[in-house]
Amino acid sequence: MKKKLLLLTIVLIFSIGTVTAASGDSMTIGGVVPLVLDLTLVQAGTADDLTLKTGVDTEDVVIATTTIATNSSAGWTLVVMSENGSNLINEETDSIAYTMSYATTSGGVSTTVATDALLLSTGTDIADSDARTGESTPEVANLTISYPRSLTYAAGYYSDLLTITLRAK
To answer: How would residue 46 be classed by pLDDT, with cut points 50, 70 and 90?
Structure first.
């Protein structure tokens, strides 16, 4: 009986030793997905050579096509700023006021946003989305200016400088 008890004690000591003789550690794994914020702007061939027509109607001219791809989880904002406060100006400072619109042609939410001259002179959010776009489904849109025709425009070359910026929200 003593031998059985001694043997049982030895077995228990070794088995407890192997059960409690453990070592471990933990670690965290992770990584960062970099922000993708891509704006491609393709200027229409006539954007810097507009035929500013005279007459009594309003003229609408596509000046560029934008393609936006971003993985910003909160969405994006497209900001347009006009150097001349949304006016085409000639050398004599004669001006032709215009408005701008943004209209999607594929992907994203179909919207048309028109702006006025005051907003463009201070930088306006011409397009805004709360959704991500993907490289496989970018948002494509046309930037269009509209200006009134007039029989009284002075002859000459009229221009404005636009700065277009894509921002993550």
So the answer is: confident
| E strand or H helix that includes residue 70 | strand 58-70
Instruction: Give the containing element (helix H, strand E) for 62.
Output: strand 58-70
Q: What residue numbers bound the domain in which 95 lies?
A: 37-168
Q: What is the 8-class DSSP label of residue 85?
A: S
The rounded distance, in Å, linking the Cα atoms of 165 and 169 is 13
What is the CB neighbour count within 10 angstroms for residue 89?
17
Residue 140 to residue 39: CA distance in whole angstroms: 10
pTM: 0.71
Does 91 fall in a domain? yes
Residues 95 and 11: their CA atoms lie apart, in Å, by 100
For residue 64, give the CATH number of its domain.
Answer: 2.60.40
Please indicate, yes or no, if residue 83 is contained in any of the structural domains.
Answer: yes
